[in-house]
Amino acid sequence: MLLAQSRSFRKLCAGAAAALLLGCTANPMTGRSQLKIVSADSAIAQSATLYSSLVKELRQEELLLDDDDPRVARVRRITNRLIDVAVGFRPESAKWLWSIEVIDDDDSVNAFCMPGGRMAVYTGLLDKLRPSNDELAYVLGHEIAHALADHGAEKMSMGMVGSAVALGAAAAAKKKNRDGVYAAATLAAFAFVKLPNSRTTEEEADRLGLELAARAGYAPSAGATLWQKMMKATGDRSRFDFLSTHPATPKRIDELRALEPAMEVHYNGLGRRPAPIRIAWVTTQPERRDAAAIAELTAGGARTFRREAASETANAAAAPAVATPAKAAEQPVAPSREREPSAFSRMIGL
After folding, report:
1. Long-range contact pairs involving 123-131 (C-beta distance under 8 Å, separation at least 24)
2. Residue 140, class by beta-carbon neighbours within 10 Å (0-12 exposed, 13-18 middle, 19+ buried)?
3. DSSP conformational letter for 283
4. Which of 16, 40, 48, 222 could form a disulfide with 134 if both were Cys (CB 3.0 to 4.6 A apart)?
5. What does the pLDDT read at residue 345?
6. In terms of Cα–Cα distance, which of 192, 169, 199 is closest to 181?
7. For residue 17, is it within any domain?
8. Does pTM top 0.85 for this prediction?
9. How far apart (Å, rounded) are the C-alpha atoms in residues 188 and 114?
């Protein structure tokens, strides 16, 4: 019996290893080989279901800030500028159902962007850190970068492999108590928010996110200052969800500082001011978006991005300077409502 179970488990591990090898494909934007057992389209579909469930419950519990809250307006304004740039890196993302909500949970210092552009920011990040517009743009750009680079599908794939091995091991051992065991595909969706990001994906998201923000007219220095502010505010690291999935170290801050000269090229090209918003992505359905503006934003096809390109020359192509109003002052922080955190939010670890 034990021999049979051992053979079954070895076969399972061999199958998982084969899946790891056969499921790896080169990401056309980053050039890096990624595990893609879960396709980008499947990751987007699963994320849409998860996001819809989350938003529905939060709305029922009155844990979503109203559209007329100044914090929501501020977040959406910055996000729209970032997406204007993002679609230039991945033109098909212009068809995504981009959306962003602000969740009233002062205990969560976090933000996320699921595959397909479903986003959220927690009041804990806005009210406890009080990020400047530039710092908030870095956070949102970093999260958007994860979606652009298919990091969500990659993390779901890793979750699916791990879940399959765990379920198979239980079957090999003939465990009779199966309560609470979910299908591997479902566990993969939860893996997006449960599993920490890898060092590699964090490096990619830092660089691409900083570039998105700089091209949208936000100061590249904000990446390092945001992390300095985060680490100063944490005290007990375990209470800050963002740190559990986005590990902060002095080395990371140094790496962000090293990226600043290259990103200043893009920032200076905009006159060191936020770019004008071309499309209200997060509040407009795809069929109602300005087709001419999308064609202009995505002209020339997808921009390439390589994480190993740590610097750019001073004469790198930069966006032409445009006349824009002076940088808007930070919106006042409205008092947050005292609410218990969402049970669903706690369950998935957001």
Report:
1. 123/65, 123/71, 123/336, 125/242, 126/71, 126/75, 126/102, 126/333, 127/333, 127/336, 128/233, 129/226, 129/229, 129/230, 129/233, 130/330, 130/333, 131/226, 131/229
2. buried
3. G
4. 222
5. 37
6. 169
7. yes
8. no
9. 13
DSSP-assigned beta bridge partners for residue 112 = 120
| Residue 224 domain-assigned (yes or no) | no
- Alpha carbon distances (Å) from 164 to 71, 96, 161, 181, 187: 41, 30, 5, 11, 9
Helix (H, G, I), strand (E, B) or coil at 179: coil
Which helix (DSSP H) or strand (DSSP E) does residue 102 occupy? strand 99-103
| Domain count within the chain | 1
The DSSP symbol for 287 reads G
- Write out the residue range of the structural domain in which residue 114 sits: 2-25+37-198
- 58 band by pLDDT with thresholds 50, 70 and 90: very high
Q: What distance, in Å, lies between the first and last C-alpha atoms of the chain?
A: 42
In a domain, 132, yes or no: yes
Mean pLDDT of the chain: 75
Query: Residues 101-135: pLDDT tens digits?
Result: 999 999 898 999 999 999 999 999 999 999 999 99
